[in-house]
Amino acid sequence: MLRAAVTGRSVAGQVFVLQVVIVLLLVISAAVAQVLQVRHDSDTEAANRSLAVAETFANAPGTAAALRSPDPTAVLQPRAEAARKATGVDFIVVMNTDGIRYTHPKADRIGKKFVGNIAPAVAGGTVTEHVNGTIGALVQVVVPVKDSGGQVVGLVAAGITTAHVGGAADQQLPLLLAAAAAALALATAGTALVSRRLLRQTHGLGPYEMTRMYEHHDAVLHAVREGVLIVGGDGRLLLANDEAHRLLGLPADAERRHVLELGLDDETAGLLASGRVATDEVHLVKDRLLAINQRPTDLRGGPPGSVTTLRDSTELRALSGRAEVARERLNMLYEAGVGIGTSLDVTRTAEELAELAVPRFADYATVDLFDAVLGGEEPRPGTALRRAACAGVRGEAPLYPLGERIRFVATSPQARALTTGQSVVVPRLRDEPGWRAQDLERTDQVLAFGIHSMITVPLRAGSLVLGVANFWRAEKPQPFDAEELALAEELVARAAVSIDNARRYTREHSMAVTLQRSLLPRSLPEQGALDIAYRYLPAQAGVGGDWFDVLPLSGARVALVVGDVVGHGLHAAATMGRLRTAVHNFSSLDLPPDELLSLLDELVGRLDQDEAPVTGASVVTGATCLYAIYDPVSRLCTMARAGHPPPALVRPDGGVEFLDVPAGPPLGLGGLPFETAELELPQDSRLVLYTDGLVEDRERDIDEGLGGLRDALLRTPGASPEDTCRTVLDRLPARPSDDVALIVARTRVLGDDRVAQWQVPSDPAAVSEVRASVTRRLSDWGLDELAFTTELILSELVTNAIRYGRGPIGVRLLRDRTLICEVSDRSTTSPHLRYAASTDEGGRGLFLVAQLAERWGTRYTPHGKVIWAEQPLP
Q1: Where are the extended beta strands (E) located within 204-351?
Q2: Residue 317 pLDDT
Q3: If we measure between CA atoms, which residue out of 458, 456, 457, 461 comes closest to residue 378?
């Protein structure tokens, strides 16, 4: 076989001879290049060495002076010979500027003229020459010798034959030839192996036989009436016969291009690019149905890729078309199931129905609903409808616009569908007088626009008819038929269920919103201790259980409360209302924050017990609360929290901190005490109370939210509470995922000029002195009109404290929005209002106080009690 390859009669033999010639040429070229390179390197090395020796000798100390001596040869000849032997050059010649030698390796040439070009060196330059001397080819360099003044006083020439610095070529040439011989042997062996493999693949055929075989193969390939494609492993088209070009409509330059770039449909191109096995797969390519078979070419060690055959099966077009239509309708119904009703919004659900139908089923689609349905109520037949959704393939069709109130006439297809509950198909609108009677001018415009056929389907949910869906055709000339009517009814039936669900949710949401708004404070009570602003944002999913309150207390104090009931909907809103009412009732007892939270905790526990028999399971009402009391006289703020985020404090200088209030358990757990924290707040401090919806959601944890709140508060130094609320909420979405309640309260101080207090001895005689002091202070405040009633109130309260209480007894007057009188003692017994009999000598004091004061009451302190009474200022 190798002999046949070497003879050159086959393709393998010709390749073998060609490759051997190429290897020989490469070896010869490498040898010549090596010799030339060595010679060039030798010349360069000789020039560099001669220049270095000449310049070194010319610049050596004493060279210039020796040239001016009476006998330069005697001085320079020994030096030159010593330098020549040390450096390995062939000669070092020192001469004057006329070229007369002073030194030479051969003494008989001293005194003779130097052979070479010295003019550039006399001018101060350097001369490098390649000459053939008596000792062979050499390189000589001539350099000037300059004195200290820079004047050329002589010349130095140094030279060396290239044979002394070369010779490497002679040494390397045998090695090069040996390497070339080895390379030639390896290349010959490799070429022989390649030729042997090529010989096996061509089966020993020569060029002529190969040409004939290819021509025969090409003729057969393009003559068959079946498309043939060969695709490489990289997805590029390697071969396509004429039939494949015709069936697929391939471009003329399709070969060598990727199959995804040939303009084929996605399914066919994907099949060709995948290389997977396919058997009689039917694909609709342009206007032909093609049966495609595909097999990989590397099953038995062949090259990677695939071969594909195509058969025209256009006779199956009608069957395939019907199957495609059926599949499209099934896909549409599937998409209706997952794409209609994605939100619990009636209008959005109607829009989803219209968007799904256009353009796959109709060119235009409209949905008309009763107004009551849009508001969440049950439809009221006989009332007008409103256009809730509209979609089209182009422009604004002359149909009723979105939002238009429509009252259909009795003869219209829509009115018939609403009355009978049955769908109506109008193949040709031009021939439908009942439809045209709705609005002659508008219907003429619709017909002129090109709309020619319509289907009207009532939106039925059980026994309720919510409205009608209308499908219009304009682009496709064929009218709607019975099969399309069935598809429209199926689509509308699925959409009607979603619209009814959205309607029910809208009704429940409206009820919950109404309940929640009725439970939250509509306005803040009047008080003078705090300047307050507040915000409430409902959750995106509906109402929740967040609440807040501002509660005026006795002694000009004010209580702030924020709370959060876990969950959303009616139950959360109702629970919130019960807790808010409980806080109102407990606050009227003037309880400390920790005691009030304890009572709330017991209440939530009872609520859970009440719910358990109803639901049949253990119910835990999750709730948190923060309760704070601010006293404008002492500037003390006492607060406690039950599982609630800590409040923030913005100091007058702009600094922000989160107050260290002990974190009690959430309400309803029971058995654990609550702790209070008491802080003294500077005037004009801003106390920020909020619920967890402000600082926590699914996308961020509470630490990140607290950091964002701190940053927002730092940007509001000196801002009013209203501006602070606006800045804090600007970083939230319009509809957050959880409720947000926010209170910002700026502290005020009731100054010493508006507070008066006295200590009263436990002696009835001291009452008159207190009355006199009070009268003087009221006169100073310009409240002489209240002197008489205030004296009566204080006389009764102080007398009761002296008679029934324990000292020390204190009296305090506060001039705030009202005039507040307070009497304190160390007793914990509380007086009670009662009706005295006509024969009783006492018992009418508190009745008199209740008649004269606007409000009165008792609050307990750690050291006793305080009885107070308020009078309105004139």
Answers
A1: 227-232, 237-240, 278-285, 288-296, 305-312
A2: 55
A3: 461
Each residue of 269-300: b (16+ CB within 10 Å) or e?
bebbbebeebeeeebbbeebbbbbebeebeee
Angle at 58 between CA 54 and CA 60, to 5 degrees: 115
Instruction: In whole angstroms, give the CA distance from residue 384 to residue 406.
Output: 6
Record the tokens describing residue 185, joined without a space.
């042997």
Q: Residue 129: phi, psi to the nearest 5?
A: -135, 145
Contact (CB, 8 A) for 13 and 207: no
Classify 335 in phi/psi space as left (phi over 0), alpha (psi -120 to 50) or beta: alpha
**pLDDT tier, 200 (very low <50, low <70, confident <90, very high otherwise):** low
| CA dihedral sign, ordered 667, 668, 672, 673 | positive
With beta carbons less than 8 A apart as the criterion, state whether 740 and 545 touch.
no
**38-48 pLDDT per residue, tens:** 677 777 877 88
Q: Is the dihedral of CA 263, 269, 273, 277 positive or negative?
A: negative
Query: What residues pair up with 155 in beta bridges, in sequence order?
Result: 95, 144
Q: Which amino acid is at 130?
A: H
The values of phi and psi at residue 340, to 5°, are -105, 130
Structure tokens at 616: 């049949």
Is residue 591's pLDDT more than 80?
Answer: yes
Q: What does pTM read for this prediction? A: 0.54
Q: What is the residue type of 323?
A: A
pLDDT of residue 397: 86
User: Which domains, from first to last, does the chain contain?
Assistant: 14-161 (3.30.450.20), 224-313 (3.30.450.20), 352-510 (3.30.450.40), 522-747 (3.60.40.10), 755-872 (3.30.565.10)
**Burial (CB count within 10 angstroms: exposed 0-12, middle 13-18, buried 19+), residue 178:** exposed
pLDDT tens by residue, 234-260? 888 888 888 888 888 888 888 888 888
With beta carbons less than 8 A apart as the criterion, state whether 409 and 438 touch: yes
* 175 neighbors 31 (Cβ within 8 angstroms): no
Q: Which long-range contacts (CB under 8 A, 24 or more apart) does 638-641 make?
A: 638/592, 638/593, 638/676, 638/677, 638/678, 639/593, 639/676, 639/677, 639/679, 640/592, 640/593, 640/594, 640/596, 640/597, 640/664, 640/674, 640/675, 640/676, 640/677, 641/597, 641/674
> Among all chains, which residue has been given the structure tokens 């009761």?
800
Residue showing tokens 């010493």:
752
The two tokens of residue 598 are 């304890």
Q: Tell me which residue of 527, 528, 559, 531 sits closest to 721, measured CA to CA.
A: 531
In whole angstroms, give the CA distance from residue 621 to residue 566.
Answer: 7
Residue 606 scores a pLDDT above 60: yes
582: which residues sit within 8 A by CB, 6+ positions away? Answer: 599, 600, 603
pLDDT at 265: 86
In whole angstroms, what is the distance from residue 563 CA to residue 117 CA? 110
- Helices 787-804 and 766-780, packing angle to 10 deg: 150
pLDDT of residue 656: 92
